[in-house]
Write a structure and sequence with these properties.
By secondary structure, the chain is α/β, with parallel strands linked by helices. It has a single domain (2-192), classed as Peroxisomal Thiolase, Chain A, domain 1, CATH 3.40.47.10. The chain has 8 helices and 7 strands; from the N terminus they run βαααβαααβαββαββ. Strands 1, 2, 3, 4, 5, 6 and 7 form a 7-stranded mixed sheet that branches. Strand 6 and strand 7 form a beta hairpin. It is globular, with a radius of gyration of 18 Å. The mean pLDDT is 90.
Length: 240
């Protein structure tokens, strides 16, 4: 078994209808059901000229990241997403198939590091950033990436953003969960507030929702331990 220790100095999560931590707490107590009326997630921190060209997913990621990083020193940035801008990529491909031209804006904002690049521009931060995808384990591999960086740079602060949305229509047959687009942003530092350990999953049982939802629920409650499983890995969290 392997493990890393980190501390979270601040975090924020956004999804339609789930804006404040109180909204997430109600969602958790309601078996992860979204409210019947979905208030739009805010995007006021994103510059207007940039905002109008962005996808709804990138808006969630940027707004969340800007909320936790305002006035904070950030030394390294990790963005992680299982599917990234797949919805925009599908639209781009459909336009080409139908004989249209590939929109330069759509093309430039269809890559996996779209949100990370837009964040550094919006926040005016010349900060090293990485974007990663690790299938259903994207959140936890991002934590490992951040934790590894902090082991080598113990005085630094890492901004970690995990975000995703359901698959677009052409790929719905592969979507096993029902959820809304979301973003989770955290400021991570060296410390022992939380320990993440992992081991091989011999049961091949995966989580019902994207792993970020179970982790948000864990941050909100008083449980000392939780386990989040994927098909190959058990991710075990402990509060110290």
């Amino acid at each position: 078994m392997n493990s890393i220790n980190i501390s979270i100095t601040d975090w924020s999560a956004l999804s339609p209808g789930l804006i404040e931590r109180g909204d997430w707490l109600k969602w958790s107590k309601n078996n992860k059901h979204w409210p019947p009326t979905l208030a739009a997630a805010p995007d006021f921190l994103i510059p207007p000229m940039m905002r109008r060209r962005m996808s709804s997913l990138s808006k969630l990621a940027l707004q969340c990241a800007l909320q936790v990083s305002a006035q904070q020193k950030i030394d390294y940035i990790v963005f992680s997403s299982r599917h990234g801008e797949l919805t925009r990529t599908v639209k781009l491909i459909e336009d080409i198939i139908n004989g249209g031209d590939a929109s330069p804006i759509f093309f430039s904002q269809s890559v996996h590091n779209t949100a990370a690049g837009l964040f550094t521009i919006a926040a005016k931060r010349a900060t090293p950033a990485t974007s990663l995808a690790a299938a259903e384990n994207s959140l936890h591999y991002a934590v490992i990436e951040a934790g590894t960086y902090l082991q080598e740079n113990p005085q630094d602060t890492v901004l970690l953003v995990n975000f995703d949305q359901p698959l677009p229509a052409p790929y719905q047959q592969f979507e096993t969960n029902s959820y809304k687009g979301f973003a989770l942003a955290m400021l991570l530092t060296t410390g022992d507030q939380l320990q993440l350990s992992w081991s091989k999953n011999r049961d091949s049982v995966s989580a019902e929702y994207p792993q970020a939802f179970d982790f948000i629920e864990y941050l909100l409650n008083n449980e000392k331990h939780t386990s989040i499983s994927s098909k190959r890995t058990n991710w075990i969290w402990a509060k110290n």
